[in-house]
Design goal:
527 residues; alpha+beta; 34 strands; ten-stranded antiparallel sheet; single chain; 5 helices; ten-stranded mixed sheet; elongated; 3 domains
Length: 527
């Protein structure tokens, strides 16, 4: 009996494991909204799944996304089957004059044949999304780009908003609970100081699928169609110098700047030609103020009014320089013909004592991309990136005697300027680069001796900065009064000196008178 019970128990366990192993843990009970339906008895499915947007970076840089629903899923419980239908907003677009004629009044059946409509893509099969990621792309990508522009122009409210998260593995994603259906995904925030991204249109679906006799809900996963461009901005102290983020240039001189950036991939059928603008602070007004390093570029006119930028003899944009501020704007309008990266050099205006302060002086370059889904160039949301380089200039401060003048020479013996000590006991020479300087007095104040020899002082690196004065380095050189017999001691000493002198003079007079009397007495005796 016990053996039968044990055998029966074992069979029960085996049967339980078999049944459990064939239960689909993803199986769901379909929930619907009976207030919205199509056909006969097909109600809107309200089951929710996970929607993730993956990015191939280690940080999100505040990027977030809007989801616009384009296809609804409907379920008929009596027939146990689903139908698909366009959302009201997407159907309105298809019926409008803003929809390209070859897509106008499209049926859901035709839509599903356009690259599968994005409705059966599976992230885990590495075939997970459809994106209008190129200027020339397939029909589905073009249609989605057109709808993206339509949604922007019409200010259509997004159905879901996805904010950024970070997985423990370090791979970022955006996730939320989204109603079953097909969605167009667009970036909500793409303006950033450190990274510029342009996203293609992206489409994926939270899918309701039949698995055997049960229904399952498959999550959506998109690997973002994102292209980045990193603006680099560097400076060299002179035309043959090495480039870095800062340069020790002083006043005057001939610094040189270098800028490079990548051209992002714009979505198919951008509503306006993509516009890329680079602006640069204070560019020198001289011949050849800008030179492209990337081959194939030329500018027809480099006057202050600018000219046409050409690439391989095709017009690619314009260049202009503001004669008053020196601000240069390079505007690339024919983006489709440009190479993947562009690099050029320019001549910055040097520092001068009237428009710059001692120490660090920032110069900016700005990279700006137009929004690909708007019909106007002047839109509120653009991708913007700024990069600054730093010019350094220093000042020598001499603490000395009012009226003294000094000559300052550099390590090569070249004269950098003269310093005159003012009534406050200080003189300055601005606009020096870091280094060791020799100070020699050329004029002494009235009543003072001219100092012989020279002294050296370090300015910038290795020097001692004046407290509270950024970029100033001090040396103290004071004159002494000319050599003479000074009166010393009290007033009594002076009186004794005068009396002594009078006694000496009186004694001399007495001797002379006495000698004269003696001579006269001798004459009388002889008579």
């Amino acid at each position: 009996m016990n053996k039968v019970v044990k055998l029966g128990g074992l069979l029960f366990i085996i049967l339980f494991i078999f049944v459990l192993g064939n239960i689909d843990v993803n199986a769901i009970d379909i929930t619907t909204d009976t207030s919205e339906m199509i056909g006969s008895g097909y109600n809107l499915v309200t089951n929710r799944g996970d929607f993730r947007v993956y990015v191939n970076n280690n940080s999100y840089d505040r990027t977030s996304f809007d989801l616009f629903k384009i296809v609804n899923v409907y379920y008929n419980s009596s027939r146990d089957e689903v139908l698909y239908g366009f959302t009201t907003n997407f159907q309105t677009f298809l019926n409008s004059s803003e929809c390209p004629s070859n897509f106008r009044a499209m049926t859901i059946e035709t839509f599903m044949t356009l690259n599968n409509g994005g409705a059966i893509r599976d992230f885990y099969d590495n075939n997970y999304m459809v994106s209008g990621g190129n200027l020339i792309s397939n029909d589905f990508a073009k249609l989605m780009s057109e709808y993206a522009g339509y949604a922007k122009r019409r200010s259509i409210k997004f159905d879901y908003y996805l904010s950024s998260y970070t997985l423990s593995s370090g791979r970022p994603y955006v996730s939320s609970s989204i109603e079953a259906g097909t969605y167009l995904v667009l970036p909500k925030h793409i303006s950033n100081e450190t990274k510029v991204s342009v996203f293609g249109v992206m489409v994926d679906s939270v899918r309701l699928e039949k698995s055997g006799s049960t229904w399952i809900l498959k999550d959506a996963g998109i690997l973002a169609k994102e292209t980045n461009t990193l603006l680099t901005h560097q400076i060299a102290a002179n035309y043959q110098g090495s480039f870095s983020l800062s340069a020790d240039v002083g006043y005057g001189g001939s610094p040189e700047g270098k800028i490079s950036f990548a051209i992002p991939t714009y979505p198919a059928n951008s509503l306006i030609p993509p516009i890329i603008t680079v602006t640069i602070d204070k560019v020198r007004n001289e011949s050849g103020w800008l030179n492209f390093v990337t081959s194939g570029f030329s500018i027809s006119d480099l006057s202050s009014t600018g000219g046409t930028i050409k690439y391989n003899n095709q017009a690619a944009g314009t260049a202009e320089r503001n004669a008053t501020t020196g601000l240069v704007k390079l505007k690339f309008t024919n983006v489709s013909i440009l190479p993947s990266t562009i690099e050029f050099k320019y001549h910055p205006e040097p520092l001068n004592s009237t428009n710059s302060v001692m120490g660090a002086n920032k110069r900016n370059a700005t990279l700006e991309f137009s929004d690909p889904y708007t019909s106007s160039e002047t839109v509120a949301v653009k991708t913007v990136q700024r990069k600054a380089v730093t010019f350094y200039a220093y000042a020598l401060q001499i603490t000395g005697t009012n009226g003294a003048e000094f000559k300052v020479t550099d390590s090569s013996g070249g004269t950098k300027g003269t310093v005159t000590i003012e009534s406050n006991g200080i003189g300055e020479l601005k606009g020096l680069t870091s280094g060791t300087y020799t100070v020699t007095q050329t004029k002494a104040p009235a009543g003072y001796a001219l100092l012989s020899g020279s002294q050296t002082v370090k300015v910038g690196t290795g020097g001692t900065q004046v407290s509270g004065k950024n970029g100033y380095y001090n040396i103290t050189i004071k004159n002494t009064i000319l050599a003479m017999l000074p009166f010393t001691g009290s007033i009594g000493t002076i009186i004794y000196t005068i009396v002594g002198a009078l006694l000496i003079v009186g004694s001399i007079i007495f001797i002379i008178i006495q000698k004269k009397k003696n001579k006269e007495n001798q004459k009388t005796t002889n008579i």
